[in-house]
Amino acid sequence: MNIKQTLEAIFEQAMIGAGVSEPRPIIKQSQRAEFGHYQANGVMAAAKQLKLAPRDLAQAILDQLPLQNRYTFEIAGPGFINIRLTHEGLTEAVASTAFPVNIGVDAPKRVVVDYSSPNLAKEMHIGHLRSTVIGDTVIRVLEHVGHDAIRANHVGDWGAQFGSLLAYLSETGHNEQARTTALADLEKFYQAASKKFKQDPAFAEKARGFVVQLQAGDPELKALWQSFIATSMSHGQAVYDKLGITLTQKDAMPESQYNDDLVPLVEDLKDKNLIEESDGAQCVFLDEFKGKDGNRLPAMVQKSDGGFPYLATDLAALRFRHRVLEANEALYVVGASQQLHLRQVFAVARAAGFVPETLKTRHLAFGLVLKADGTPFKTRDGADVKLVDVLDEAVDRATALLSARDNDLDQQEQATIARVIGIGAIKYAELQKNRTTDYVFDWDTMLSFEGNTAPYLQYAYTRIRSLFRKSGLAAPDSNAEITLTEPQEAALALKNLQFSEALTQYLDDYQANILCNYLFELAGSFMTFYEHCPILGADADLKASRLRLSQITSETLSTGLNLLGIETVERM
Length: 572
Ligand code: ARG
Known about the structure:
By secondary structure, the protein is of the alpha/beta class. Helices cover 53% and strands 12% of the residues.
């Protein structure tokens, strides 16, 4: 149990003792030092119910708290309770804790995380950064705390885009050379094909025909389709590897995997009387989905031409996540624009009994990546910006930054550090924002060594590591007793203890900025400690204690950064 949970438990008992029937103590970290380390809220709501003066109830609760030396309490304002850990309490907590602190989950859950999930045929663009990076952190944290997390890369490998590709290829001739050219620059080929699709109705017709033939199992088309997929998947994997994303090809659960499930799935919906025909299409109408005009919105599961839309595949995929993967929870890291789609998937799957009520479904939505002027991130001619180009630029910029600084790094070391800084900066800029809003992509801010950025945190880490090198010891003594003599030491120790609170809070809503802000505060506490408390020049015991505290901090920092998918280096 971390400090917050311990306090919640103590307060719950005390509130019951004071006559509160349904106590809901809300313990929060204080925002300002003068309010103590933590604050207990929830007394005022309880007082209102009991028709008592809040301060009186607060006092009655304090009277019920077990006498102890770990905390001091003080009633403040209209009825808040400020809580301070005593020197003894903090020392005891530090001594009895294994660092870096983790949260122990007693009942591991199996959580399927749908993330990245690009449509194949085109290369990944900047828009895929968000789902990929946010999702990878979800996976890393779930695994770190002991859940069973399953990566589901729901790649779009079966949509209309392949009709265009195949039709375009047929125009250039289905020969080996045409095929090689197409695959060599699939992106360019795809752009030409989709342009033609938009401009030429006869071509579009042909493309749709190819989709039907492909879906009917035409062997030649299928072989061509497979070569497109293989090329596209390897492009994707190259991006994941560059970006340090934990996805591999075996995590792909492509749309096509559910093909054979779709006919029976629609049949099943019909048997359950959930299907209505609307303009020739098979739809499910649920009362909870209404348009602005009050009309019911359809959830289409089969098109009038017999084809199956996105929603049908997603229903099959969710059912698979329940039946085959035996998920307790299904998370979807998908753009906010697909909110209605996913709500319909979840609701129809429930209505049809494809998944039980107990399976938690959740859409972790995110906004757009914008340019500094607030417009969507596109190239000058309106095309999507390739993700791989953005990553290369990040590393180039970091290289330039490093060479501008005075350093004695050799070439290879410099290249490694530039990669770690550049990629880290991009990821951190992404994760440090509130997930649900749009954000502006700004090179200078993300690559800055000052402020809440990856380079700042990575640099803080190297500071601690260089301290160890200077100490002349191979490694700090991990068994050294920690004494907290100065307030800066106490503050740093407390921050380290609070790592598990940040993890718990993160898991509440998967907002990575919780973890980012925590690490930023941790690094800040270290810098303050470092300025105020001499380390290498201190007496032996104190020196060992301070080195140990620094070591704990470096471990918490690197563990936290690693959960964000961000690497650290020894020097920079
Ligand atoms: N491929 C989709 C797209 O690019 C995203 C898929 C998200 N996951 C899902 N199960 N629908 O928009």
